[in-house]
Amino acid sequence: xxxxHARCGVSxxxxxxxxxxxxxxxxxxxxxxxxxxxxxxxxxxxxxxxRKPAVQTNAVARRNSAKPERRxxxxxxxxxxxxxxxxxxxxxxxxxxxxxxxxxxxxxxxEADETINLKDPEDAVKYMPSLFxxxxxxxxxxxxLATRSWGLNSSARTLIYYDDLLIxxxxxxxxxxxxxxxNLISPEAIGRVDFLSGPFAAAYPGNxxxxxxxxxxxxxxxxxxxxxxxxxxxPWNQYGTKNTYVTSQTSAAAGNRxxxxxxxxxxxxxxxxxxxxxxxTFGSVFGVGPANTTGAVGAWNRTGGVANVIGTxxxxxxxxxxxxxxxxxxxxxxxxxxxxxxxxxxxxTSDPQTYLRSTFNGQPTFGxxxxxxxxxxxxxxxHLSNAIALKSDTKGVFDFDLSASSYNYLQDIQLNPxxxxxxxxxxxxxxxxxxxxxxxxxxxxxxxxxxxxIWRPFGIDGxxxxxxxxxxxxxxxxxxxxxxxxxxxxxSTGTGQLFTTGIGETRTGALWxxxxxxxxxxLKLTLGGRLETWRSLDGFNINSNPTAISGxxxxxTPVFVPVAKNQPGLNxxxxxPKASLSYDPNKEWNITASFGESYRYPTVTELYQxxxxxxxxxxxxxxxxxxxxxxxxxxxxxxxxxxxxxxxxFKERTNNAIISQTTNVTNSTGGQTPTTTIGNVDAIRMQGVxxxxxxxxxxxxxxxxxxxxxxVDSRILSDPTFVSTIGGTTATGKRVPNVPEWRSTVGVTYRxxxxxxxxxxxxxxxxxxxxxDNTDTFAHVYQAFDPFLVFDMKIHYKATxxxxxxxxxxxxxxxxxxLFHPFPGRTFVLAGKYTF
Length: 836
Fold this sequence. Notes:
The protein has 836 residues and is mostly beta strands. The protein has a 26-stranded mixed sheet that branches. Strands 1-6-7-4-5 form a five-stranded mixed sheet. Strand 31 and strand 32 (703-718) form a beta hairpin. The longest helix has 29 residues, at 2-30. The model is unreliable at 1-84 and 547-556 (pLDDT under 50). It is a multi-pass membrane protein. It comes from Bradyrhizobium campsiandrae. InterPro entries: Beta-barrel_TonB, Beta-barrel_TonB_sf, Plug_dom, Plug_dom_sf, TonB-dep_rcpt-like.
């Protein structure tokens, strides 16, 4: 199975490369004056700034006669940018290249390295306004990005790119298997991170409702190498679990530029012991566990019902290794080709801890609770990504940008026992059944391809800059679950009997056009539109029902009758208009008003994936409608050479919002199984205000102050299909799930000289609900979504030109809070880095 998928991934990229190669030839022949012929002369030294032609015809003549120059990467890094006193205040390369209408927030590698306990790439956005990453532990492979109006279960409502590779997993819209593939990126490879708010650019699909995060690698222009070792230590004491969890991480990067060729290779290895990610709950009587046991910890659930904690759920040890190669080649002084290859491997095991003891012999027991078996697993994953691109950077009448990427689950297999061992006066009930389940995702894959052009009919400084493009994507889900006779040592298909399966595919094609019109130098109107056609196909599910079995299925293999279902195909074609008006009364002030309509289509897992992961069961909905979103905002910004303050007013309405709900369902043994269902909500509305500020040299030279505050009034306008689980409740008029009213950041960094940086920063997120009727009002219990205030600190010391050391503490005051899962407590971080 593994070789077949490997060949599939390589062949897809090969086909895409051939298509791009042929396309590039057409472009080159069609505009020879803008794309000069390839020359074999050795490049000269790099120029710090790209040439800007004053007159087009003269510029072409100079390019054709001058000696070729070694160009900086089209995707500029922080070290290569020119601008003000702080590079993060400069306009992102993608924004300036395509005249994108969104306002941006940015951070450079240097700023992140000095001020953030940067253990994973997603840590870089920790203090950006309105952003929050659901990172439950170091190396978390389920870290979803939440934005100002969309919460922690909205992975498909934000686009995240690493250079030309889309690392958002639009295979789903959840905080588990569809989480962004951050693990492909080594923190040492990051050059700059930029966040663009809102769905206002026609160049991006409707998944940009929440925004677009652009991570740019730092491609070198001279030899370099860096190695970093990071260790984090977290003491933990919650319910009946008390331990200290340690993570070690080794990362390295190296690169060089030699003539036309530049390359960057990175590697990362992480060994992480994690605090409990879930807990196993039981019962309807407070403090009372399963029959003939003691040790249950009396607890409530988030809606006020009994949810006694009888042990941990997922208690994981993860070993992850990733590598990434990026190569750039200057086909000509004005055209660059790039290729990147990424591979990520994860071996993760989970060994639940029980709090129960048998009243028969006083020994630990699972008490017959099968939920412990769902959280006992061995999980092996190997994922492969490929991305290629060909871009011109003439700054002339025409430029182009061709890119394609592919992501493949080469191996993704999780092994679970089917249930726990029998429990009685003569049986301890501490072990697991010999039979089990094999959950597979290998074969799941997706591809994206884009062809973009920029037409400047009046030159680089002309009144019109027209960009346009075509997009295509394909997402394929393969998720069979097999039964096995020996759960921990079995073939990839076990007994060959299917327990469940989910198969399906979605495809999207799009055309888009945008005109950035400088009416006068101070006033720019950007108009755009995106035409998209989407369809789902090949949807197929199998669910199994036991026959002639009561209670817990027996070993070695229970008998099941599969129930097959061919799902209906869906399709939709939609047009999304965009408009933005930007006014610069002077160089310090900017006022921008923007509007965008967008469509977010159901993902293949929302349609077809029925699965249980870490004890949480999810049931898909094959009849979902696309989301239709209308977003508007008004930005007022004041800039200084070393700072900025921005006020944003925004309002958003979404029709047919696709929202998932998780509730506890009592099973046949008295335990509780978290169960997620997915459906359309007729209409929701979100409106609010965001204020952010960032300034260097405040009162004291070297003192930087930054902060933000965001308020969101979210409401469910209509949900006629809502069915109350407790009776007498309604969803209409309630707050939108997973969207807090308030969130804020505040921090200071003091740099007394070039060698030291001291940072203290705080993050606050207010109460958010997880249920449509807002009945989850109980706080500080497992599965609740608590408000929290967390402070972090970091000391960065550059000891020599080569050596740097960091000491930091995340969650200084050890705040304990739940966002469904228990989140990390006080964590000590020590890092050392050597740059060659």
